[in-house]
């Protein structure tokens, strides 16, 4: 019975994918807006979490306006899926300049262009992080943690689509440091989204002025392996148009005080993410419970 | 200093590091080269913390990938001695 349900889901997903591949982009956006609106109505819990997070961040104090931002952010997530499924179309060599504007400091570019160097890119769930991953894989293969789908047929299909660019998923349940070190040893790019609640492995770092358990992995890998680390974001500026921004390489000299070093790096990353979110709060994933005190 | 004396010194340094940073309270009376990494509450993430501290206290840089494969404290001591600690 389970298998039949999974196959039915897979069939539905294939149909959605077919429509997404064949319909004009504007029509696909309309469909995704409708789906997002439906999701918004159904998922009351996440709606409230998103509104409260926006108020807590200080970006908006009025609950009604916070809710309006949260609703747009929900639509943004639907767009992320549509854009990611079509990213191969608009990231081809001849079309790329029409869709992407890249701000990349010389030190980061030098690392990307050096075949003997690996890079850790830390980012958050803002804009379309998948597009950024796709673009940067032009330089080196990219590996990042991704949550496996519950349906193995859909998981296989998603993997096949993603392999069209050089992205290698590291399953979330297998976030072993050895897997990260392998990526760095191969002189590849390790992309880490650090803005989820980190639980016991996290360090409490201010995010919009409130302590949030923040993953230490990017900072520790940088401090121990000396791999260059930077922050990156992908801001949507129009339909299928994006600005990808990289911070300069974060230079954190070891002070001898491990916790202070980690704190300095994570504070810098959180600040970069906050500044990015302030550009357009409707492009951030507010529905996640980042603060759990 | 003899190899045994070196190993004793490093063992003491490692104990000091682990006492500071370990999230669990291992049985220090039985702590020795035979102690397993697992019994000390270290996993693949916290071992990076250990590597940072080893470099600060003992002054030797160990490759993280190599250390991830060790199972006992004694193996870490051997690595450090081999690197000139």
Walk me through what this model shows.
The complex is a heterodimer of chains A (293) and B (85). With 293 residues, chain A is an alpha/beta fold. Helices cover 52% and strands 18% of the residues of chain A. Chain A contains eleven helices and nine strands. In chain A, a hairpin with a 2-residue loop joins strand 6 (202-207) and strand 7 (210-215). In chain A, helix 3 (44-57) crosses helix 4 (63-90). The longest helix of chain A has 28 residues, at 63-90. The radius of gyration of chain A is 19 Å and the shape is globular. The N and C termini of chain A lie far apart (41 Å). The mean pLDDT of chain A is 90. With 85 residues, chain B is mainly α. Chain B has four helices and no strands. Chain B is globular, with a radius of gyration of 12 Å. Classes of the chains: A alpha/beta (293), B mainly alpha (85). At the A-B interface, helix 9 and helix 10 of A face helix 2 and helix 3 of B.
Provide a compact summary of the structure.
With 293 residues, chain A is an alpha/beta fold.
Key terms for this structure?
heterodimer; A: 293 residues; alpha/beta; 7-stranded mixed sheet; two-stranded antiparallel sheet; 9 strands; 52% helix; globular; B: 85 residues; mainly alpha; 4 helices
